[in-house]
Specification:
Two copies of one chain form a homodimer. By secondary structure, chain A is mainly α. Chain A has a domain of about 100 residues: Winged helix-like DNA-binding domain superfamily/Winged helix DNA-binding domain (Arc Repressor Mutant, subunit A, Orthogonal Bundle), CATH 1.10.10. The first copy, chain A, is globular and about 55 Å long. Chains A and B meet through helix 1, helix 2, helix 5 and helix 6 of A and helix 1, helix 2, helix 5 and helix 6 of B. The structure holds a DNA duplex (30 and 30 nucleotides).
Chain lengths: ~170, ~170
DNA sequence: ACCCATTCCTTGCGTGCGCAACCTTTCCGG
DNA sequence: CCGGAAAGGTTGCGCACGCAAGGAATGGGT
């Protein structure tokens, strides 16, 4: 339990401006910014997809019927409902997804992958994967890579509990 | 070296849609989104600061003369030069920072913390720290916390090498 | 049968960002 | 001393997001 109170003493009276936990969070944010910046450019250059599009498409592609309710998609993509509406608008205009009515609940709408959308994401994934691999390769040891996923999963579950239930269907 | 090529075999021909590395990256992104969402709200509610403002102010406060060149600030805050210009515009309008000319190089401009700015960030840090601690507390073990910082530092250095030189002055 | 709370999605509005283009200043080679 | 390249910073433009409000549909209580 001296996790945050002992090791990181939250009430250093002098100045906590360089408190370890702030450093850790700062590093996290910088790593994220660098990663997304790089991946965004890679995806745009090689596949003509924004990272947001990629996230939506791959989640649809992973789902059995290649369809997902708007709100479920929103929960998984770290987008608000309104943001997702706009994103799906653009994806629909680009012909990569379609909206379909939900038979049981006429409030809901499905976002469904089109043939073009499937082709697009299946083409993009290997390229993206290679780019991520190139970016990460050598940065972490095997052990660290394992720890990374475990820690990220724990943090995700803590930070965004809604997504935990549906986001990683193929993994415990 | 079987980091990414062995363990994560980048060319599984079936479908790599749920490739471990994509899962890891996805978790990373979700964790980040949840964290920033929470912290953004906390900072806004309790301190009336956006996270971006907080980042700028704390970095200025950490610096010896409480001043930093615009471009250095941009490199540290994961903002582009243009984004930083706008941010400093708003901070200046709010009276929290001032622009000051650089005596040596008339192209450069310093962003300098004002008294109000210093008071604001010194008030915000403990609250923010407490919120982060509450959010993280119990999510990770001591070992994981240590690993987290080490991994994040490595990733940051890999993803955003420019920031590594100046971002954490008080730490190796 | 009715009504009210809730859920799901969509729009109006404002905000903040990145990119590319621009101007100024500095640097460096000739 | 001069001229082009590079660095530092600022703007025009467009885009994407979140919030709050709105409209349609569902469910539960009476």
């Amino acid at each position: 339990m001296r996790n945050l109170s002992g090791t990181l003493s939250p009430m250093a009276p002098t100045t906590a401006l360089d408190h370890p936990i702030l450093t850790a969070v700062g590093l996290f944010l910088e790593a994220h910014a660098g990663l997304t910046r790089t991946l965004e450019h890679q995806l745009d250059d090689e596949c003509g997809l924004s990272h947001q599009w990629f996230e939506v498409l791959i989640r649809l592609a992973r789902t059995p019927g290649e369809r997902l309710r708007m709100s479920d998609l929103a929960a998984q993509t770290t987008l608000t409902p309104s943001g997702l509406t706009r994103a799906v608008d653009r994806l629909e205009a680009a012909g990569l997804v379609t909206r379909e009515a939900c038979p049981n609940d006429r409030r809901s709408a499905y976002a469904v992958l089109t043939d073009d959308g499937r082709a697009r994401i299946l083409d993009a994934v290997p390229k993206h994967l290679a780019a991520v691999a190139a970016l990460m390769n050598g940065a972490l040891s095997d052990d660290e890579l394992v720890a990374f996923e475990r820690i990220m999963r724990k943090l995700r579950d803590r930070m965004n509990p809604c997504a935990a239930a549906t986001s990683t269907p193929s993994r415990g």
